[in-house]
Amino acid sequence: AQKVTQAQTEISVVEKEDVTLDCVYETRDTTYYLFWYKQPPSGELVFLIRRNSFDEQNEISGRYSWNFQKSTSSFNFTITASQVVDSAVYFCALSEALGNTGFQKLVFGTGTRLLVSP
Amino acid sequence: EPEVTQTPSHQVTQMGQEVILRCVPISNHLYFYWYRQILGQKVEFLVSFYNNEISEKSEIFDDQFSVERPDGSNFTLKIRSTKLEDSAMYFCASSDRTGGQNSPLHFGNGTRLTVT
């Protein structure tokens, strides 16, 4: 069965600190996709990134970076120079294929609440 | 940027009443989903829908739930007789015609359902 573990329930940092959110996943699929979503206090789910299982290249987008390591089944997310606006719950998710339909079903972790104080 | 639109943003209903949650997916998307998030918990898959039929549903999606695409734009989730434990944020999502694992789900802003 698919599973995503975000062991950090809540992280508090002060503005400008770097912070890494951990994500460990389990799957038997050889092809899968990993995602990060941000949920600000307003409640919506904001897509941040997806990564396929064949691409272990790290990715950087502005202050955000992602480290995918298949050997440890981890897909960690780092925010550099955090800002108050980064305060949100961050969800890691794994895409499970639904048969041969090409459909996907996301399995979410329990989320990490990030609090960035001024 | 096109977005998934959900209405209402907040719905309060009494136990036993029927509710319909509405969603307008992104216009060229063909795959639709409902997810649920009980307050403070993780987001859970409810159902996926394609070509006017359900393609997959979770154990949560029992006979009290149904989905429909009544016209070319709306996608609805109906709960026939609400229970207190149905109180949650309900997210609609859609993905594009590639439909595969590579296409990210675009989520709506959610409907917060409160059952009293």
Describe the protein's architecture and organization.
- The complex is a heterodimer of chains A (118) and B (116).
- Chain A is an all-beta fold.
- Chain A contains no helices and twelve strands.
- Chain A has strands spanning 3-5, 10-14, 19-21, 24-26, 33-39, 46-52, 59-61, 64-69, 74-79, 88-98, 103-108, 112-117.
- In chain A, strands 2, 5, 6, 10, 11 and 12 form a six-stranded mixed sheet that branches. A four-stranded antiparallel sheet of chain A has the order 3-9-8-7, with no helix packed on it. Chain A has a two-stranded antiparallel sheet with strand order 1-4.
- The termini of chain A are far apart.
- Chain B has no helices and eleven strands.
- In chain B, strands 2, 4, 5, 6, 9, 10 and 11 form a seven-stranded mixed sheet that branches. Chain B has a four-stranded antiparallel sheet with strand order 1-3-8-7, with no helix packed on it.
Quick structural overview:
With 118 residues, chain A is mainly beta. Chain A has strands spanning 3-5, 10-14, 19-21, 24-26, 33-39, 46-52, 59-61, 64-69, 74-79, 88-98, 103-108, 112-117. Chain A contains no helices and 12 strands.
